[in-house]
User: Fold these one by one.
Assistant:
Number 1:
Amino acid sequence: MIGFFFFVFINLNLLTVVVSLISVTITYLTLQAQNWQWWWRSFLAGYSVFFWTFAYCIYHMIVVFKMDVFWSDIVFLLYSLLISNFMGLLCGSISVCASSFFVWVMFSSSKSD
């Protein structure tokens, strides 16, 4: 039982690191193109986890679970939408925090002459 929670802990940390690095990379490329509006791109880079999670849930509903009752499909899709949206918002907020820290470090170390 402890091995399962350790596995989940490692995967969540890996997700946090990957989302942060992708967000920092997108923010850096946005700022390098002299576009100072990096907030929403940063958020959407993390929120894109929503689309992948929801697509994976739909795949499981059709291929693995083979649901055939209409109401169970609706309940499953609503719960999947809710959980996927939560994951997207969580990763989006992690993404914005990582990008904000990156921008703060980058501009605090620059010279202001």
Note: The chain is about 85% helix and 0% strand.
Number 2:
Amino acid sequence: MTKPNSIRRIAIALFAAPLTVALAACGSGDDAGAAAESAEQAKAIAPIAAPEGQEWADSVVKTDAGGYLMGNPDAPIKLVEFGALTCSHCAEFATESFEELRNEYVNSGRVSYELRFFMLSANDMPFTLLATCSTPEATIPLAEQIWGNLRSFFETAQSAPSSITEQIGKQPLDQRFVSMAQVYGLTDFVTARGISRDQANACLSDTKKAEELANMTRSEAETYDISGTPTFLLNGNKLEAMRWDDMKARLQAAGAR
């Protein structure tokens, strides 16, 4: 796993760093595959019906921890992901997992999925401010779409003149993330998905929320000893950088079968 330097000081670094066009450092998952094989088998849990006329995956609430929980809030199996929106391995996990995780596991009522955004670098901030700009119900699907298009965002930013990226680092904070989102093509991406340009720019200019996200990352890094993403909690037990097949085996071992 690649470990970002001084991640516990990220609340300060986020606001000092200029735009850097590179995929954020994140966990590789290379060491996690064998872990699932040794997971202790729990008793199989029967599916839990959603309220009449609903599916569990349609239920998304913001949690007291600042995450976004999809599914049965009382599910016996609770999966939490600390994910960075510019992390390529988070994007890989999202691409591999989301449809099956949502349809087969969350909709069974046995598993809840909570996404907690983690800022690995200043690049993550405009992505996260926009992913959380709409309703809680829209946040996880929008994050998944961002991960699905991550490489195109970075290719767009790489084509920008270096003079623009240098200027961004000198801008006031309430303008910086607006400019970063434009360089990535991210503002156009979210406006095509129901967020108005004025709303997007207002979210990107929200320095109070940016500070809250940075402080939340610092707290999570200290509390859970997070040094890269994706990092998971499965019923409170920390798991690092897993591929979906390994995580699926863990969920099944926990009773989701």
Note: DSSP finds eleven helices and six strands in the chain.
Number 3:
Amino acid sequence: MPEDVQIKQFESADRDALLSFLRLAYPAEPLKGNPTFWTWHFLENPHVSLDNVPLWIVRSGDHVVGQMATILVKLKVGDVEKLALWIIDFFICAEYRGRGLGKRLMQVARENYCKTMIALGYNKDSEAVLRSHKWVSLGNINRHHLMLFPGNAKEIARLGPVRHLANLIYAPLRPSLSKLSLPADGALREVTQFDSSFDELWRDASVQWPCAVVRSSRFLEWQFMKQPGKKFEVLGYYENDRLMGYIVLYFRKAEQGEVSNKAAISDLCYSARNSQEVIESLLKGALRLALERRVGGLVIDVLDPRVEQKLRQFGFWGIKASPPFMAGTFEHQDLMYERSNWFLTRGDSDVSIFEEPNL
């Protein structure tokens, strides 16, 4: 390694230099260098210890010139839970590329912190580093979209009369509120706090998937209730007052007092008992809320055959452009390297984290 370059795990003394680097490296993504957002992202994660932050940097003198940033998650693999690193950001300044620094960053993290890593959404440069460490490609998470009010979509919303005409013409193709009723013993309620009932739900639901990020109440609270500058809408589905599933929606900020042009289903989870009915009820709740707010369309990223079957029944269609998925591990390769074993949602990728703030 060149003598003027140091690879190290992040320490609190590196904070200011790292934030300066992020603002220069991502001029079009100010959220990444925002101190409040950065603190939430990397220091307030319930799995993180402040003296052992899962973030590695490249320093050249007083300056940070590269980083590998991760989210520490609990991963369910078979019958065990283990810590894993979800890589969400990999960047080396142009003048320092070609020196093997990216590969070395990952090597240091794997040797000293965690041997199991996953990544959902990355560019070709990052993929080359992952493949150099014998990571395995597991295809793409599947992205689905449902048009609701095309006149309110970003491309048409400013065209006045055309906008209203588009919405009128599309009306017969739009899901009808009258067909989104729930079973007699079921109810959807707004969730304002992830309590212990969500831990109970996860214990029940997780038996369906050999591989998935653990959705504990503490992690969900951090991700969807405490994220700065954002409001997520969470609906819980209950049968006889028992939590059977939840769905998380994110509505983009409306421009100039208009309606939101798009909403996303960021996450969902459903009980293994009566799963088809629970999934259907959750999607009905999401559609009802999106229709009431007259959003342009509803998008979801998910890898789960049960959910995707229901999406098709509601008229969602697949989109080719979707985040790629890779995993690298020295353990449980028979489970983790099989795509069909995974349950993934938009909330398991930086697509959800780096949505533009809506508050």
Note: The chain has two domains: 5-134, 142-324+335-353.
Number 4:
Amino acid sequence: MRSYPKAEVPLELQTAAEKHAWWTEYRKKHQGVLHDVHFHRVVLDEAQAIKNYKSYTSIACRALMGEHKWALSGTPIQNGTEELYPYFKFLRVPNTGSFRVFKENFCGKDRVKIQRLATFLSKFMIRRTHLDRLFGAPLVQLPKTSEHMHLCTFNDVSHDMARLRPILLTAK
């Protein structure tokens, strides 16, 4: 985020061309080294951090330049399919348009929109679970779960806090 300049477009600039020219010049002068480099590969781990397309984090990540881009997430959608828009823009998925166009084409309960979204996602999204196998072997070996019971003794302060906890939770 610190590498990507943050600025308000001056009010005297009226046309899109004027605003674009101003932003191009401003960005060149004020951007940090991360946004100066054209990377071979850009990988966003925990990519759900960009799900709000208006957030500064999302804007800065989408502005990174790279030949190949990857977005990794264990929880890509939490609230709705609108959260996929920043992933589409970061990954440069063609024909996704603005946020308004994206919502019109991919979001909602309409079967056509759901199918269209599924078709687009199938082109670039890989979903893996702990049950997936490669050459007959699990992709990930998770340790067996085990349960351990530990008895804890309270000191005087802990004992008093445990006794007061129900009172603290109900107090307003």
Note: The beta strands are 38-45, 65-72, 133-134, 137-138.
